[in-house]
């Protein structure tokens, strides 16, 4: 596979206290999620406590989660490498903008496909509900009638046993429910980050109003 250049890190929300808070006021607790909340088909949304530039401002779709570790793909970092240049047979199924997304720092030469379709079948491995892993060595024409949209990722994000749980305990990730349209969204960077958080309720919803560029803090 052609090397996929990383996109600029999306902006991140500020960590400063909210302006105008009365002295001594206690903010409501903000529950970001626990490792027990993580499952295939959930989203991991990067929080300011996450210092790794590979994941700053990212939204990660969890593909697999088990005692042996966790695997996901970053949804909001499109590259400039077009799918038609590397996997021409799959280009007609890919949603706009028709490019590889930088799925994560692990095995960046490996391509993973996620398709949204109502039913599984040959060449599809169900992740959750309408989202399926696609066998990119298979026949794309055979899947065409069933597939509503395809997104292809270069590389993936991976955590060893206990690693993700430790990061979540430090407040590095929020775990929220995913929608199939998140996988196919044309929004990139902070746009998808904010959209996912805007649909949250309670104290967590306030995160969506933040400015994510740390230089503006």
Note the gap between the termini: 39 Å
The fourth-level CATH homologous superfamily is VC0467-like
CATH architecture: 3-Layer(aba) Sandwich
Proportion of helical residues: 10-25%
Integer-rounded radius of gyration: 18 Å
Largest sheet: 10 strands, mixed
Number of strands: 10
- Output the structural class: alpha+beta
Q: How many separate domains?
A: 1
Q: What is the global morphology?
A: globular
Average pLDDT reading: 84
CATH topology: VC0467-like
What is the H/E string?
A: EEEEHEEEEHEHEHH
Organism: Klenkia brasiliensis
Protein name: Putative transcriptional regulator
Family: Belongs to the UPF0301 (AlgH) family.
Biased composition (Low complexity): 15-25
How would you sum up this structure, described in words?
- Strands 1, 2, 3, 4, 5, 6, 7, 8, 9 and 10 form a ten-stranded mixed β-sheet that branches.
- The protein has helices at 83-86, 140-143, 163-169, 180-184, 190-198, and strands spanning 42-46, 59-66, 69-74, 78-82, 99-102, 106-117, 124-128, 131-134, 147-159, 173-177.
- With 217 residues, the protein is of the alpha+beta class.
- The protein has one domain (35-209): VC0467-like, CATH 3.40.1740.
- 13% of the residues lie in helices and 31% in strands.
- Mean pLDDT is 84; it is low at 1-29 and 213-217.
- A hairpin with a 2-residue loop joins strand 2 (59-66) and strand 3 (69-74).
- It has five helices and ten strands.
- This is Putative transcriptional regulator.
